[in-house]
Structures are given as structure tokens and as C-alpha cells.
Write a structure and sequence with these properties.
Blueprint: E1 16-18, E2 30-35, H1 39-53, E3 57-62, H2 64-72, E4 79-81, H3 86-93, E5 101-106, E6 108-111, H4 121-127, E7 132-136, H5 142-153, E8 160-164, H6 167-175, E9 180-185, H7 186-190, H8 194-197, E10 200-202, E11 211-217, H9 224-234, H10 237-245, E12 249-250
Protein name: Molybdate transport system substrate-binding protein
Organism: Pseudobacteriovorax antillogorgiicola
GO biological process, one term: molybdate ion transport
Length: about 250
């Protein structure tokens, strides 16, 4: 695994990776801008895609909003995988990308370091004042928007909130203290050990807006054909099965 460094590298809680599998076809890798919640699942998909196609893929992760603004400013990404439909749609309306596609539906959970907590709606309504809630920045992160909507739906207006730049940072806050409840992506929890996974409660989906994760191919880039191959792969039945196993519902 090697890291990509450029003027577009995001300085905090962001990373880039290239997964190599021997002789790869393209001299330059496909560059994918991916929302933080989907970073780990994307690693799995890239590994399989590279084995099948021989096409190298590099990814950079941050909040959907930050990546949106980078693409608007001309960042050299070939594919954008956001955590909502709005950002790709806005780029499409401005002629920056091709027609957006849905690749997954996100699921929001509450996670705690304290395994003894009986996390549930009833417990939350009685005990929420004893805890702080870590959420992603609602201005740039769709999971933060969903978390904020959940708290509002539950009439928890006076909660103490720790706000992270991305859902990845929000999860980091939750893992740092037993008095912090993280409103984060199920996919993040699925990446933990079974012992740690037992500390989460999946929030009722009727308590927050649907998290339709969409993507798009960026226009004007030199590897349009390879980008389309990668998109076709992540929308394939096999890749969608992998995505579902990692904490999402299927896209489309």
C-alpha cells in the first residue's frame, strides 16, 4: 500500500491508497474520491477489481462536501463516490460529471464504548442527558445530516454534541470515551471485532432521512473507459453483495 501526495491531499483524517496486484494496465491509476464511511468497503472492491481488470485504482477519502468542493475546483479525480445523492446531482447540473448512479443505501447506528448500555429508543429518551453525542459535520457530511435529523425527530434538542469533520472522526470521538455516543455508519462498526460490534444499536430508518449514496464519473478525464469499467463493477451483483455484507443496503 502506498500513499498519494499532491496539492489535493486532505491533511486531516483523510488518506489515499493504491492497491497493487502486479502488472497493471494503466500508467496512471484511476483516482476515486470517496466519502469516509465507504473507505474500507472500497478497499475490498478495489482489490477485487484490480485482480479482474489489471487496472490500478487510487482513492482519497474525506467528507462528501469537501470532496465536492475539490472537484468543483478541478481536483484530478476520475470518479466521485458520495454519501448522498445531492452532491453528485449538483455536479451533474453544473456539467462536471456524467449521470449520477446510486451504489448503496447507508445505515445509521448508535455506538458506545460501554458494552453494558441497553441501547434502545426508550433507554435513549430517559438517559440522553448523561451523554455527549458525536456526529459528523452536517454542513459537509450526509451522515451528519442524518444524525442531526434523528436527534431532532427524537426531540432531543438540548443534547451535547461533539462534531467531527467526517463520520470517521465522529467514530473516533465515540471510541475515545464511554460517555460519548457515536451516531455513525453501520459499515464502520462492521469493521470492528465481534466484541466491539456488540456495542451498537441500529437506528430505526423511519427516524432519519434515507442515506442514498450516489456517485458519478467526472467529465473530461483521460480514463473515461476505465472509469466506466469500475462503475460497472461496483454496480454488479457480486459487488453489490459485498457492499450489503459490509453494512449497507443495495444501491439502485
Amino acid at each position: 500500500m502506498s500513499f498519494l501526495l499532491s496539492k489535493w491531499t486532505i491533511p486531516l483524517f483523510a488518506w489515499s491508497f493504491v492497491l497493487g496486484t502486479g502488472a497493471l494496465k494503466a500508467s496512471q491509476p484511476l483516482r476515486v474520491a470517496v466519502a469516509s464511511n465507504f473507505a474500507k468497503p472500497l478497499e475490498r472492491l478495489i482489490e477485487e477489481f484490480e485482480k479482474r481488470s489489471g487496472i490500478s485504482v487510487a482513492a482519497s477519502s474525506s467528507s462528501s462536501g469537501k470532496l465536492y468542493f475539490q472537484i468543483m475546483q478541478g481536483a484530478p479525480f476520475d470518479i466521485y463516490l458520495a454519501a448522498n445523492h445531492e452532491y453528485p446531482s449538483q455536479l451533474y447540473q453544473q456539467g462536471k460529471v456524467l449521470q449520477p448512479f446510486a451504489y448503496a443505501r447507508g445505515r445509521l447506528v448508535m455506538w458506545s464504548q460501554d458494552r453494558s448500555l441497553p441501547l434502545s429508543l426508550g433507554w435513549l429518551q430517559k438517559n440522553y442527558r448523561e451523554y455527549r453525542f458525536s456526529i459528523a459535520n452536517p454542513k459537509t457530511a450526509p451522515y451528519g445530516q442524518a444524525a442531526k435529523a434523528f436527534l431532532k425527530t427524537m426531540n432531543l434538542h438540548d443534547v451535547q454534541v461533539l462534531q467531527g469533520e467526517s463520520v470517521g472522526q465522529a467514530f473516533h470521538f465515540a471510541r475515545s470515551s464511554k460517555k460519548v455516543l457515536g451516531l455513525v455508519a453501520l459499515s464502520q462498526v462492521r469493521g470492528l471485532s465481534k466484541k466491539d460490534q456488540s456495542r451498537f444499536w441500529e437506528l430505526p430508518q423511519d427516524k432519519y432521512p434515507a442515506i442514498i449514496q450516489s456517485g458519478a464519473i467526472v467529465k473530461g478525464r483521460p480514463q473515461q473507459q476505465e472509469a466506466q469499467q469500475f462503475v460497472n463493477f461496483i454496480l454488479s451483483s457480486k459487488a453489490q453483495e459485498t457492499i450489503a455484507s459490509l453494512g449497507y443496503q443495495r444501491g439502485g
